[in-house]
Design a protein that fits this description.
With 453 residues, this protein is of the alpha/beta class. The chain has a single domain, classed as Aldolase class I (TIM Barrel, Alpha-Beta Barrel), CATH 3.20.20. The protein contains 15 helices and 14 strands. The strands form 4 sheets. It has an 8-stranded parallel β-barrel with strand order 1-2-5-8-9-10-11-14, surrounded by 5 helices. Strands 3-4 form a two-stranded antiparallel ribbon. The longest helix has 22 residues. It is globular, with a radius of gyration of 21 Å. The N and C termini lie far apart (52 Å). It binds phosphoenolpyruvate (PEP) and manganese (II) ion. The site of phosphoenolpyruvate has 10 residues, from loops.
């Protein structure tokens, strides 16, 4: 068998990948040691890809299905991954939670659920301030394990470019385990369903029992029919993160030899955050030049005219699945702010995938001083998102959730009725508050009800 011919990228395409260097780049750390940065970037640029271009294309096709109501996206994981939390148990529990949610959503939606982790690369965070002051001492703010460390000491907070390489290694180990879990039998739908039965049996809320019972019947029916196909045993699982640190994303961008086109091979899907989506800034320029499916976060102030220019820049060919808008409006705002945005985009010739992030518009500081979110606000924003799309005849394509597989106490409410006084018990996040395992499953059952309504 002959090897297919390798297609090289054009010089323009290669040069374009560095055009961001001449543009304003928000939220980049100030690396104190330029030589160490050059060494780290050089190391990353010869390391193997973490994902393949062909896999990114598959995800693009799945997102195109979600844009037209033939699939539903579940994107979830930590706000900020840490090196310390890249353990087998931790990764397994996150995957397990996402798979359990996906099983419930698949039933509710009666369509495939596209599973995308905020995982294997989510190590860098945008911050509202460059510095943090405690007791008269000012140090650089914590920007994620890819940049510096959390303890409030000058040594820990100094940006260290070696951390870019450590982030690659942690992502690589994480993805290796994710691939093993999702194809090696762990993800078998029958196990996932048994876990969900365990959740419902122990849940304080009996309203989920009926749906779990219905899924049980469907599973028994399939078993009675002798269904034992591969689709029950393995799942497709994709990795995503915010493309924030261009010193990480750029050296991990490679030319696909099948097409001569560049892909960011640090993850299948990357998004640009609310704070870095400046139309003329470095981040939008960079993602405009890679061929992955990409996302942009949109808050309530996103200007509809800006969106049309953004679409022209990021998806000039109107390629299905290329562009996802992840809206994060806030539960009190979504019903007023979302319609004009969706209408304007829909009236143009663009087809984007709409995903609801009900987390980032609903963060506040609790009386006891913790950054938190209310479970009910999260549910209400998703409900508002569905209502808006229903009223406009457009497609609610998925949800984007900050979650963890363990039993943390970071978000208020849910059937476990986590109260302000409980937050201190297990507040483990180094950044935003996450739904715990139980709250995540409750949310999945509630969204499944919305999908089947
Ligand atoms: C995030 O996803 O953790 C984040 C910072 O979101 P946003 O860009 O929507 O504020
Ligand atoms: Mn966050």
């Amino acid at each position: 068998m002959s090897t297919p011919a390798r297609i090289d990228a054009s010089p323009d395409v290669i040069a374009g990948l560095d055009a961001w260097r001449d543009l304003p780049a928000a939220q980049q750390p100030v690396w104190p040691d330029a030589e160490a940065l050059a060494t780290a970037v050089g190391t990353l640029s010869v390391y193997p890809p973490l994902v393949f271009a062909g896999e990114c294309d598959v995800l693009k096709a799945r997102l195109a299905d979600a844009a037209v109501g033939k699939a539903f996206v579940l994107q979830g994981g930590d706000c900020a991954e840490t090196f310390a939390s890249a353990t087998a148990d931790n990764i397994r529990d996150r995957i397990k939670t996402i798979l359990q949610m996906a099983a419930v959503l698949t039933y509710g939606a009666s369509m495939p659920v596209v599973k995308v982790g905020r995982i294997a690369g989510q190590f860098a965070k945008p911050r509202s301030s460059n510095e943090e002051t405690r007791d008269g001492v000012t140090l650089p703010t914590y920007r994620g394990d890819m940049v510096n460390d959390f303890p409030f000491t000058p040594q820990a907070r100094t940006p260290d470019p070696n951390r870019l390489v450590r982030a690659y290694n942690a992502s690589s180990a994480t993805l290796n385990l994710v691939r093993a879990f999702t194809t090696g039998g762990f993800a078998d739908l029958r196990h996932v369903h048994d876990w969900n039965r365990g959740f419902v049996a122990n849940s304080a809320n009996s309203r989920y029992e009926r749906m779990a019972g219905d899924i049980d019947k469907a599973m028994k029916f399939m078993a009675a029919c002798g269904a034992d196909f591969d689709a029950l045993r393995t799942v497709e699982f994709f990795a995503s993160h915010e493309a924030l640190l261009l010193d990480y994303e750029r050296p991990l961008t490679r030319i696909d030899s099948r097409t001569g086109l560049p892909y960011d091979v640090a993850g299948h899907f990357v998004w640009v955050g609310e704070r870095t989506r400046d139309l003329d800034g470095a981040h939008i320029d960079f993602v405009s030049r890679i061929r992955n499916p990409i996302g942009v976060k949109l808050g309530p102030k996103a200007d509809p005219d800006y969106l049309l220019r953004l679409i022209d820049k990021l998806d000039p060919e109107r390629e299905p699945g290329r562009l996802t808008f992840i809206t994060r409006m806030g539960s009190g705002t979504v019903r007023e702010a979302l319609p004009s945005i969706v209408e304007k985009v829909t009236a143009s010739d663009a087809v984007v995938t709409w995903i609801c992030d009900p987390m980032h518009g609903n963060t506040f500081e609790s009386p006891s001083g913790y950054k938190t979110r209310r479970f009910d606000d999260i549910v209400d924003e998703v409900r508002g998102f569905f209502e808006v799309h229903q009223a406009l005849g457009t497609v609610p394509g998925g949800i984007h959730i900050e979650l963890t597989g363990s039993d943390v106490t970071e978000c208020l409410g849910g059937a476990g009725e986590i109260a302000d006084a409980d937050l201190k018990k297990r507040y483990d996040t180094l950044c935003d508050p996450r739904l715990n395992h139980q709250q995540s499953l409750e949310l999945a059952f509630l969204v499944a009800e919305m999908l089947s309504a």
